Amino acid sequence: MYKVYGDHRSGNCYKVKLMLHLLDLPYEWVPIDILRGETQSEAFLAKNPNGKIPVLELEDGTCLWESNAILNFLADKSDFLPTEPRLRTQVLQWQFFEQYSHEPYVAVARFIQLYQGMPEERREEYRVCQARGYKALKVMEKQLQRTPYLVGDHYSIADIALYAYTHVADEGGFDLGAYPAVRAWLERVASHPRHVTMLG
After folding, report:
1. Which domains does the chain have, with CATH numbers?
2. Burial class (CB in 10 A: 0-12, 13-18, 19+), 61
3. Rounded to two decimals, what is the model's pTM?
4. CB of 148 within 8 A of CB of 158?
5. Cβ-proximal residues to 60 (8 Å cutoff; 6+ apart), any chain
6. DSSP H/E element including 4
7. Which residues make Cβ contacts (< 8 Å) with residue 116, sequence separation at least 6?
8. Tens-digit pLDDT profile for the chain (200 aa)?
9. R_g over Cα of the chain
10. Rounded to an integer, what distance in angstroms lies between the CA atom of residue 7 and that of residue 34?
11. Considering Cα of 31, then 36, then 39, then 40, what sign does the dihedral take?
12. Are the beta carbons of 95 and 159 closer than 8 angstroms?
């Protein structure tokens, strides 16, 4: 059985949880409190020397880290990861977009507002995150006006990667009112019969 080291409120950890539920794979969840510094303990750093969650521990003790890398591992040979090279590359394209153009702004704004309660010294950073986060949402809106999922007609790990923080973007102060295609996509993703919520 897999072990997942993570925080239920973390979008990056939620990606792994959602993928495991969609594939109906059993796992054990090991809670890690990042605010108490548990990712910096000697025991945790032995699993991920980068000191971040999530970590997926395999039955043989091998540990995988970086949420999108874990998604690719779990989804291999499933319907959530296309085998056709162009489509598979488009999945990667959206995963890189999530890590470089979406997560650093949508997730960080959420962290500043939800976890830290908007400290004065981070307000300017929050404003920057808002502007750049809305830019990322516009890119998604354009794509989702054309296709039901980010890579064509099929639900893939590209959608899981971007659903994780987009569906809680309001907790970072983002208003999705101007993004009807994104909102419809969120509902589409959540309608999967094996869907599980972040805290569910």
Report:
1. 2-75 (3.40.30.10), 85-190 (1.20.1050.10)
2. exposed
3. 0.96
4. no
5. none
6. strand 2-6
7. 122
8. 999 999 999 999 999 999 999 999 999 999 999 989 999 999 999 999 999 999 999 999 999 999 999 999 999 999 999 999 999 999 999 999 999 999 999 999 999 999 899 999 999 999 999 999 999 999 999 999 999 999 999 999 999 999 999 999 999 999 999 999 999 999 999 999 999 999 98
9. 17
10. 8
11. negative
12. no
Token representation of residue 28: 């054990």
7: which 2 tokens? Answer: 């925080």
Rounded distance, CA 172 to CA 9, Å?
Answer: 13
**Residues written for the chain:** 200
What helix, strand, coil percent values describe the chain, rounded to 5? Answer: 60, 10, 30
Instruction: Return the amino acid letter for 148.
Output: P
Q: Give the separation between CA 145 and CA 88, rounded to whole angstroms.
A: 21
Q: Which tokens in the block code for residue 130? A: 């808002």
Residue written as token pair 């981070």: 122
